[in-house]
Amino acid sequence: MSQPLTVRFKGPGGPTTLSVTEVGPDKAEFTVKGGNGRSRAGANGEGSGCVIVLSSNGSSTSCGGAPGARPTAEPGTVVIQIATGQDGTAILQIASR
Hints:
Blueprint: E1 5-11, E2 14-24, E3 27-34, E4 37-44, E5 48-55, E6 58-65, E7 78-84, E8 90-96
Antiparallel strand pairs: 1-2, 2-3, 3-4, 5-6, 5-7, 7-8
């Protein structure tokens, strides 16, 4: 993606909204809102990214180096992966089971 976007889907805790609020060279900022609360984070810097795991018990977010492998989800979870690009784009991948 090269500009902000919003994705709505059914998460483990109910209706969930992922909003990518800013995309730029080596930068991606986002917010996830759902039945289990709200998470806001961002990836900044060359080769950086974030992984967000949503489950019926809550969520976790980890940011740092861009994840290398495609996300995989355990039953009852959603995994969101965002990686920054030097050209002002970001790669968004979502996996669920």
